[in-house]
Design a protein that fits this description.
By secondary structure, this protein is α/β, with parallel strands linked by helices. It has 14 helices and 21 strands.
Length: 437
């Protein structure tokens, strides 16, 4: 029951007829006896035009609705909850395009087609527990302070495409909640901009999330997702469409959100040991961005090779008293070569850091840097330098008669296990971009 409108009736600000028409079951209006059979056989535009001409209720209803809105203008919130609408077009039926107050359509029923297209809600709008029985159009609509669609039921297609869900005045305050909502047919969010999106426990049949973006250019794309469940739902729908590239993108976001959840709930014992879960997740991110970035994995393997070389040398010899067989050529100056080794490592670390940048052009710079680095080996080192690193990190050597790690078998086992794991991540990342369901 809408207590605000009930109070308006009690204060004699609206009549009983006006009150009744707001809550009348309008699903039966189309079945009135005075609507002749031939009207049903005509097209929709003719039918609705005839319907408006011949139905007193249909003409009377928008006037009553605007009156109810005007009577609540002085309050901070306009309460239209529990109302029943038929073929509702916000722009056509309401006298203003911009709502500057909070407005509630909670528990409303919308029969026929419903359109909020090109509407601007300056404050928050609520559609909690509402039911849309016909096609619903929120395309090109602006929710400056967010919208709440908790446990909302959409029986037909719903369009939220090209919407703007952000505030120009108060950034990051526009949150769109669709928790527990039910979309029986198509739901379209394409080309929309979000501050925050929450799809927890939402059922969706056919979806379109193409080209959704962050409304705040200073925030990363991942920030628009309220939780891991939201990313998982979008990911699962791309997997159903066999759109592997998009599915991988949302899989990464899902894992990032999982890390955030574990960090925030470290004292929650029901979740188990957080560090047992966090360590492999963080390593997966560092090595191959959760099995999706083979370039990062190769760079990580190269860097690991350098560190393995340093540790191996410090264990077996000394960082500054290498035997002659490790020099990289006659007449080689040890200090000069160490400088190049360290510079190579720094360059690799820089290229590795570039792999975390969202821009796709990063791969051009990474390949350019690695190409120059590999080319420089021919100028400053002979092949023995690369051979040493290759022998250290090649896990296949464990099955050969190889004495590289004689006396340091434990260290050798660790190096090759880690190397094999990184190589596996490279293979997984390659497969993620080529696999098919």
């Amino acid at each position: 029951m809408n207590l605000v409108i009930k109070q308006l009736l009690g204060d004699d600000k609206i009549t009983q007829d006006e009150y009744d028409i707001l809550f009348e079951d309008k699903s039966n209006w189309l079945k009135k006896e005075y609507l002749k059979k031939e009207i049903y056989d005509s097209d929709d535009s003719v039918f609705h035009a005839k319907f408006e001409e011949t139905t007193h209720q249909y003409r009377f209803y928008p006037d009553t609705l605007n009156k109810i809105i005007d009577l609540q203008k002085e309050s901070n919130k306009i309460d239209l909850s529990y109302l029943i609408f038929l073929n509702f077009d916000f722009i056509r039926h309401i006298d203003l395009l911009n709502f500057k107050e909070n407005i509630s359509f909670s528990n409303c029923k919308f029969y026929g087609s419903t359109s909020f297209m090109n509407t601007c809600f300056e404050k928050k709008v609520y559609f909690d527990n509402a039911t849309f029985f016909g096609e619903t159009d929120f395309s090109f609509t602006t929710f400056k302070m967010g919208g709440s669609f908790i446990k909302t039921n959409f029986r037909e297609n719903a369009f939220f495409n090209d919407g703007t869900y952000t505030s120009d005045i108060v950034p990051n305050l526009s949150e769109m909640y669709f928790r527990g909502s039910y979309f029986e047919k198509i739901i379209d969010f394409s080309n929309s901009s979000f501050d925050k999106l929450d799809l927890t426990n939402t059922f969706m049949n056919i979806t379109n999330f193409n080209s959704i973006k962050n409304s705040n250019s200073n925030k990363t794309f991942i920030k628009i997702f309220a939780n891991r469940e939201t990313a998982r739902i979008i990911k699962s729908h791309y997997e159903k469409q066999n759109n592997i590239l998009e599915a991988n993108k949302y899989f990464v976001i899902e894992q990032e959100k999982y890390i955030d959840e574990l960090k925030k709930n470290q004292d929650n014992k029901t979740e188990g040991n957080k560090w047992v879960k966090l360590i492999p997740l963080r390593l997966n991110k560092l090595v191959s961005n959760f099995g999706t970035d083979w370039v990062r994995a190769i760079l990580f393997l190269m860097i690991f090779g350098f560190f393995s070389l340093f540790i191996f040398m410090s264990l077996r010899y000394s960082l500054f008293t290498f035997p002659h067989e490790f020099y990289m050529g006659e007449g080689w100056h040890k200090d000069f070569d160490w400088f190049n080794i360290f510079m190579s490592l720094i360059i690799l670390l820089f290229a590795y850091r570039l792999s975390f940048i969202p821009a796709k052009i990063k791969y051009f710079y990474i390949f350019f840097i690695v190409f120059i680095l590999i080319g420089s080996y021919g100028l400053f080192f002979d092949s023995s330098f690369q051979n040493i690193i290759s022998k250290l990190i090649n896990p296949i050597n464990a099955f050969k008669d190889d004495d590289t790690f004689n006396g340091y078998e434990a260290f050798g086992m660790l190096v090759r296990i880690v190397s094999a794991t990184i190589i596996y991540q490279i293979i997984v990342a390659f497969r993620q971009n080529t696999r098919r369901s």
